[in-house]
Amino acid sequence: MSESQQAGILPASKNTPKLCAGKVADLQNVWETLRAEAEKVAADEPTLRHLVNDVILSKETLAAALGARLARRLAREDMPRVSMEPLLTDIFEKHPHVVHAASRDLLAMFQRDPACFSPLEPLLFFKGFLALTTYRVSHQLWQDGRRWLALYFQSLSSEVFAVDIHPAARIGCGLLLDHATSFVVGETAIIEDDVSILHEVTLGGTGKDSGDRHPIIRSGVLLGAGAKILGRVEIGTGAKVGAGSVVLSDVAPHKTVAGVPAVVVGTSIEQMPAIEMNQTLDCCGNI
Questions:
Q1: R_g of the chain computed on alpha carbons
Q2: How far is residue 225's CA from residue 245's CA, in Å, rounded to a whole number?
Q3: What CA dihedral angle connects 219, 110, 9 and 193, to 10 degrees?
Q4: For the stretch 25-35, what's the b/e string if a residue is b when 16 or more beta carbons lie within 10 angstroms of its beta carbon?
Q5: How far apart are alpha carbons 58 and 39 in whole angstroms?
Q6: How far is CA 139 from CA 29, 210, 230, in A?
């Protein structure tokens, strides 16, 4: 059995979405880095010592740290932290692929966001990462048949983080969700690995019919702020969508589209715009 299979990650074939299909993150290295950074924060900023001790330094695993951080942000009267944290930690511990996905998201945010100087920052402060990790919990609950609890966590994420991702949506690993405010993802949407998305992006439907009705976003795609992709359209590998664009039809791989409705304005100069974060149109300036 391969390392990916042991982590619960299924290999991708040509006809299946690339969802957590790449290299499994080195969880021990990620965890040791987070602990080292937390120790520095505790020493340099005593005001935050309680936070980093509670979330990181008092925990033995990344699974426990994720459970603690989400519980601190999401707990409320109808599910206090004393009930929520054990529930979340149990999900992370029983489903290691969820922790692997979260660790790859952490690294993506650290590597692609020039305003992020440590992988500890997303875990403590970035609502894009916290909302995405909450989605990963709700998605696992949905797959386990715990529909009502999955919807409960979706609702909490919408309320606390202003991010609304349906638990049934399928999202890969290594996602950068930058700023995140007003990010909306519909039930049948698919987002492959290594995608970067800015705030106010909508992956929505075009009517009330059931079935596959939301977009497919392939690997390496960069979605600019305020982009709206509507219907069962496919944004091809390595494509770019300009800020404020409304996409109503398929976008070929490595093409750049912009406008309302969006039209092709160029060809991406990068193989994976999501990794390079080059937010310029390939014809005429910034997106």
A1: 19
A2: 9
A3: -10
A4: bebeebbebbb
A5: 11
A6: 26, 19, 22
Cβ neighbours of residue 55 under 8 Å, at least 6 residues apart?
Answer: 38, 65, 68, 69, 72, 123, 124
pLDDT of residue 12: 41
Q: Give the chain as a DSSP string.
A: --HHHHTT-PPP-TTS--SS-SPPP-HHHHHHHHHHHHHHHHHH-GGGHHHHIIIIIT-SSHHHHHHHHHHHHH-BTTB-HHHHHHHHHHHHHH-HHHHHHHHHHHHHHHHH-TT---THHHHHH-HHHHHHHHHHHHHHHHHTT-HHHHHHHHHHHHHHHSEEE-TT-EE-SS-EE-S-TTEEE-TT-EE-SS-EE-TT-EEE-SSS--SS-S-EE-TT-EE-TT-EEESS-EE-TT-EE-TT-EE-S-B-TTEEEETTTTEEEEE-SSS-HHHHT--EETTTEE-
> For position 9, what pLDDT does the model report?
40
What is the mean pLDDT, run by run of 10 residues, along the chain of 287 residues? 39 61 72 95 97 97 98 97 98 96 94 93 97 98 98 98 98 96 97 97 91 96 98 97 97 96 92 89 59
Tokens of 157: 């994420």
**Stated pTM of the model:** 0.90
Domains, the chain, in order of start with CATH, read 1-9+16-163 (1.10.3130.10), 182-287 (2.160.10.10)
